[in-house]
Please model this.
Amino acid sequence: MTGINKIEIAKDNFTHRTTCRVCGSEKLHKFLSLGPTPLANSFLRENQLEAVEPYYPLDVYFCSNCYLVQLLDVVSPEVLFKEYAYVTGASKPMQAHFTGLVEDVIQNFKISEDGLIVDIGSNDGTLLQCFSKLGLQTLGIEPASNIARLAEAKGFRTVNEFFSEKCAVKIHEEHGNADVILATNVFAHTDDLEGFVRGIKYLLADNGTFVIEVPYLLNLLNNLEFDTIYHEHLSYFAVYPLIYLFRKFNMEVVDVKQVPVHGGSIRVFVQKAAKQQSQRVTALLLIEQEAKLDSLKTYTKFGEEVYSLKEKLVKLLKALKNEGVRITGYGATAKGNTLLNYCKIGTDILDYISDTTPFKQGCYTPGMHIPVFPEEEFHEDPPDYSLLLAWNYANEILQKERKYRQNGGKFILPIPEPKVI
Ligand code: DWN
Ligand code: ZN
Model:
C-alpha cells in the first residue's frame, strides 16, 4: 500500500513565532510557501502507512531588519530529533570533508594538549573520530537517542541531550572549558539562538574558537536549492545576520570560508575576544551586498523561479514515464522529501529510492510513501533513469556509479535546472 495518507495539518507540536530569531524585529515578509508538508526525516514503517500523517506549514520569511531568512513555524525539537534517521557515516564523502575541517581547525587555532573538543549535534561521531585520531579529548552532544547510542558503541563519549545554556553549565562542571566547540549542520536547526550562544560563551575557553558550518544562503538562491528548505532548517544563513547575532554577545566572527559541502556551505569561526578579523569576512559581506541579500525583491524572484523549476521537473519526469522507462530515486535525503512532496512525485513516477542508511531501508518516504531500498537493489536491477535526490554528492555518485552509466543508465539532476546526464 503506497497511496498518500489522509493529510491533516498538525494542531500540536508546533508554534508560530512572530519575531525574528536573530534581531527580534516584527518586520517579517513571507516570500515562499511550499505548502503543508510532512517532516522530512519522518520515514514511515509499513504499519504506519494507513495512519493520519501530520503536515506542517512550510513558509519562508525574510526579516527586513537583520536580513535573516527563516521559518517561523517551529516544530518541537523533540518531535524532530529525539529519534533521527540521518546518519552522517552513511555518506562516505562526509569523512573526507570532516578530515579537511579538522586540519583547518588545528592548523589555524590553538588547542592545548589536554584541551577539550566539543561537537554539538555529533551524530554517530564521524567528526569526533577525526579529532580523537589525533589524540585529542572529545565530547559529543547528540539529542537523538538512537544516534547517540551508535556513537557510544564506537567509543565516543556522548551526552544525549539538546545543547542549551543549562547543558553547557553541566558540561562545564564536569569537564571544564572547551578549546574548540563545533556545530556543523545544527546552528540552522536551532530556534533559541540566543540561549545557544549564551551556552557557547559559557563553555568556551577565553581564547577558544566556536566553529559553525551551515548551508550558505547565497548558494541556496543561486542554485535554486529550494529542497533544502524543511522544518529542521529554521534559518538560512548569510554572514551578515551571523555577525549581527554574535555582536549581541560581544563575540566576533573572525573568519569565514566557503566550503562545497551540502550544496555550498560557510564555515564560520567565532571568538570571544577577537583580535583581528580576516579579509574573507569583509569580502563575503561585499558579495552579499552585491547579491542584494538585503532586499525582499531578491527573495520574491527566487520564489517565482522555484515554481517554474517545479513545472519543468514534473514535465520532464512525466514525459519520460510516457516513454515507458523505469525511474528510481537515488538517496532518500531529507531535502528529497521536500522536493517529492512539493512536486507531488510519488510511486507513479519513482519505483523506489535507494539509500545506504540502514534506518531508512524498508521504510517509506514521508508524504509520498515511496519505498526505500538498500543500494544493492539499484545495482542488481538498475533502472533506466535515477532522480538524484542526493545532488549534493553528484560528483562522488557519478564516479561511484560509472558502471551504471556505461551500461546506459542515466541520472536526472533536479536543480538548478532539471537535466539528464
Ligand atoms: O542538516 C542536515 C543534513 C546535514 O543532513 C539534516 N537536517 C538532514 C540531512 O539532510 P539530507 O538527508 O538531505 O542529507 P544528505 O547528506 O544529502 O543525505 C544523503 C543521503 O543519501 C543519506 O541518506 C545517505 C544517502 N546516500 C546514498 O544512498 N548513497 C549518500 C551517498 C553519498 C551515496 O552514495
Ligand atoms: Zn531580524
